[in-house]
Amino acid sequence: MRQQRRQRTPLPQASPTRKVSSGLPETGYALIVDGRAKSEFKTKEGAGNEARELKQRFPMLQIKVYDAEAKRGEEIVLTPATPNDH
Fold it and tell me: What is the average pLDDT value for the chain, to the nearest integer?
């Protein structure tokens, strides 16, 4: 037996929407962990050092350093250490 569909009532007109912040800084650098901005830094070196330290502690996380001026992120990938053959 078929079930009858209910007619939906129209939603009331929404008020004008505000621009939602992306959570990314407009200046400096940000640490992006699994797609979410976590920390802001003034220098690329500071953000990079923190990103590498975090990646070493938690290698399963996807970590990027976001450059606000260039508006792009650089993924942090750890290279495996190779033993020295002396």
Answer: 82
